[in-house]
């Protein structure tokens, strides 16, 4: 990036800023978070938009604001409800951070989002992009809000060939973006940049022919617009094969399935899921469906070690879940709860009542806490996933009607819905 491009204020820079602003003012989309300057709403929308398209975000945003209309409402809500409202959006740590930050705002700033740079940066989960978006959009402060979309637009228009995956490029881009903000127009200009990246200067096929700044776009004039921005590829997520159990209850649990809660920290913290474990290397790891007999035997042992008496009966399906650094392939088996011999069942009940060897009770939001086999070796279950060594998972038997009370990662939500749909269809036949 040369000095001229960094400085802003040149003819091209002025042209870019004014044209984009004019274009935005003429045809900006009517989006729910644009109907007010409420920094809380802008903040929520920006966090949601970091991971998902506008069309998908709108219903989530409306429901979230209806349920948590103010900072105080979000700060005081049970975490489970916040996660449930976020369910399907992914990146659940963002929802947790948003709630923690709301609690900070409530305690430190009386429930009002501060308009001070230092204070906004000090909020949990608020990085340079979100801080810039809140300060500029809500308070019209001349702060840049630079994300991947904005870097793409700037790379193309100013023909910048620096690698946008590098932190120093981001810093340069922020300086450039800040220098481009017309006086008194931070709110509209930053939104214009974002809108342009979302609607016109799109990643794969930029719509140059209808672009308001086409005539001076250096990337386009050089014929390299689709080669920009330059970005080195991140390492692909590490593949991990896992065996998952969809355990159907019997007797008093008939019609229900077993779910467990993830640990208090680490991946998908405190969300609910079907029990699953890493598939040993000799069970077809990485090659799709594992050898059934060996997999079922392994799953049965894992269930027993976790305190669940259940027998795998049939392979159901494979399901995928991708994190930034890990890609899970879950081989899901339908399992059936086994009846415990009377003395063992009595012991399990006794252990549960005594508060050991069973799920940490708490207030069950529907569903029924699972009784676990005496002697189950549950602590350390999630140690390889960032959970604490001493944590024991909470397990519940739930029916479809209970699903609304638990927050599930998408992959398990889909599995459970598919299962209950199948059961209902079978019941109608
Ligand atoms: S002309 Fe094309 S590449 Fe250049 S800013 Fe417009 S849409 Fe993007």
UniProtKB/TrEMBL annotation:
Gene3D superfamilies: Helix-hairpin-Helix base-excision DNA repair enzymes (C-terminal) (1.10.1670.10), Hypothetical protein, domain 2 (1.10.340.30), Nucleoside Triphosphate Pyrophosphohydrolase (3.90.79.10). Keywords: 4Fe-4S, DNA damage, DNA repair, Glycosidase, Hydrolase, Iron, Iron-sulfur, Metal-binding. Binds 1 [4Fe-4S] cluster. Its EC number is 3.2.2.31. Residues 48-199 form the HhH-GPD domain. Its cofactor is [4Fe-4S] cluster. It catalyses: Hydrolyzes free adenine bases from 7,8-dihydro-8-oxoguanine:adenine mismatched double-stranded DNA, leaving an apurinic site. It comes from the Bacteria. GO terms for biological process: base-excision repair; mismatch repair. One of its GO terms (molecular function) is adenine/guanine mispair binding. Adenine glycosylase active on G-A mispairs. MutY also corrects error-prone DNA synthesis past GO lesions which are due to the oxidatively damaged form of guanine: 7,8-dihydro-8-oxoguanine (8-oxo-dGTP). Belongs to the Nth/MutY family. This is Adenine DNA glycosylase. It comes from Paenibacillus stellifer.
């Amino acid at each position: 990036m040369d000095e001229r491009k960094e400085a802003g204020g040149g003819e091209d820079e002025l042209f870019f800023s004014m044209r984009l602003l004019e274009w935005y003012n003429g045809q900006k989309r009517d989006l729910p978070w644009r109907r007010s300057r409420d920094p809380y709403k802008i903040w929520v929308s920006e966090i949601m938009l970091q991971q998902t398209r506008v069309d998908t975000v709108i219903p989530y945003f409306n429901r979230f604001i209806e349920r948590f209309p103010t900072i105080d409402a979000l700060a005081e809500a049970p975490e489970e409800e916040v996660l449930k409202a976020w369910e399907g959006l992914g990146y659940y740590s963002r929802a947790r951070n948003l709630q923690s930050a709301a609690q900070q705002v409530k305690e430190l700033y009386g429930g009002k989002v501060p308009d001070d740079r230092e204070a906004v940066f000090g909020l949990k989960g608020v990085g340079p992009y979100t801080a810039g978006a809140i300060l500029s959009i809500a308070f019209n402060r001349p702060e840049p809000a630079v994300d991947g979309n904005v870097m793409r637009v700037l790379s193309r228009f100013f023909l910048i060939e620096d690698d946008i995956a590098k932190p120093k490029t981001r810093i340069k881009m922020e300086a450039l973006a800040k220098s481009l903000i017309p006086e008194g127009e931070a709110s509209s200009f930053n939104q214009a940049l974002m809108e342009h990246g979302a609607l016109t200067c799109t990643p794969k096929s930029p719509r140059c022919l209808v672009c308001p700044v086409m005539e001076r776009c250096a990337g386009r004039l050089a014929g390299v617009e689709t080669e920009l921005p330059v970005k080195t590829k991140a390492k692909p997520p590490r593949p991990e094969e896992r065996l998952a159990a969809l355990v159907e209850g019997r007797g008093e649990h008939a019609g229900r399935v077993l779910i467990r809660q993830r640990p208090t920290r680490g991946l998908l913290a405190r969300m609910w899921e079907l029990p699953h474990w890493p598939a040993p290397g000799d069970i077809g790891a990485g090659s799709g469906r594992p050898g059934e007999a060996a997999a079922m035997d392994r799953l049965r042992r894992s269930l027993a070690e976790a305190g669940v008496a259940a027998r795998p009966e049939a392979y159901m399906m494979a399901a995928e879940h991708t994190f930034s650094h890990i890609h899970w392939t879950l081989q899901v088996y339908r399992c059936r709860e086994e009846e415990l011999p009377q003395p063992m069942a009595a012991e399990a009940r006794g252990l549960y009542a005594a508060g050991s060897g069973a799920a940490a009770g708490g207030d069950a939001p529907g569903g029924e806490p699972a009784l676990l086999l005496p002697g189950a070796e549950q602590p350390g279950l999630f140690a390889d996933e960032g959970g604490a060594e001493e944590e024991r998972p909470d397990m519940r038997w739930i029916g479809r009607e209970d699903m609304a009370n638990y927050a599930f990662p998408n992959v398990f939500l889909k599995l459970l819905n598919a299962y209950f749909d199948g059961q209902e269809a079978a019941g109608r036949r």
